[in-house]
Amino acid sequence: MEKYKVTQLPLDLQFFSDENTNDKSTEKNNGDEQVTLSKSELAKLLESERDKHGAKVLERANAKFEKIIEQRVKETLENDKRLSKLSEAERKAEELSQKEKDLERREAEIARTQVKSEVINELSTRKLPTELAEFITLDDNEKALEQINTMNKLIDGIKKEAIKEFTRQDVPNAGSTMFGSKSTGKKSFVEMANENRLLK
């Protein structure tokens, strides 16, 4: 058997790729240098990068906030312009209806908050996760109670099925005993015990 000397040849896998071979971005950058930084220099560098990132986030948030403010100012100006065209009685009626809408909205929010607290209380008394309150309709106490009852039944059913599945045992074969199946050709347990008894 002959032995051959195996030498490794440098292989550029990018040569075999289907991508553009003239693309210089795929070439290795051998010009990277390893830079050694002290802890304080590294901390300063990290802090400056963190500040840059924070500034970008803050800039985006400010732009979004300014857009919202501009939209609200525009809506307010349009509403004021519309109200200025109305007569005094119409303007007062419009302002009154606007106040009534705001009052109704606030009352609805308060009612929803109360229903949510009652739902959370009911869930905790039934030993159900309080996170389920997010999935319950909070418009009416009766609807919420119906939904809690339905969820309670579903969860109890799931628990019972899980317990039933967990405690399920295999059914023994017909004619089998604890020590194996009975057959007429084999000796009974009593006979085997009598044969193997030391004192006779």
H/E series: HHHEEH
Could you give the distance between the termini?
75 Å
Shape: flat
The total count of strands amounts to 2
- For the residues shown, what is the average pLDDT? 80
Strand order of the largest sheet: 1-2
Low-pLDDT stretches: 25-29
Largest sheet: 2 strands, antiparallel
**How large, in whole angstroms, is the Cα Rg?**
40 Å
Task: Give an overview in words.
The structure is a single chain. With 200 residues, this protein is mainly α. It has a domain at 107-165. 60% of the residues lie in helices and 2% in strands. It contains 4 helices and 2 strands. It has helices at residues 39-85, 88-125, 141-167, 189-195, and strands spanning 176-177, 180-181. A two-stranded antiparallel ribbon has the order 1-2. Helix 2 (88-125) packs parallel to helix 3 (141-167). The longest helix has 47 residues, at 39-85. The two termini are 75 Å apart.
Supply the key terms:
single chain; 200 residues; mainly alpha; two-stranded antiparallel sheet; 4 helices; 2% strand; flat
In short:
The chain is 60% helix and 2% strand. It has helices at residues 39-85, 88-125, 141-167, 189-195, and strands at residues 176-177, 180-181.
Topology at a glance:
Layout: H1 39-85, H2 88-125, H3 141-167, E1 176-177, E2 180-181, H4 189-195
Antiparallel strand pairs: 1-2
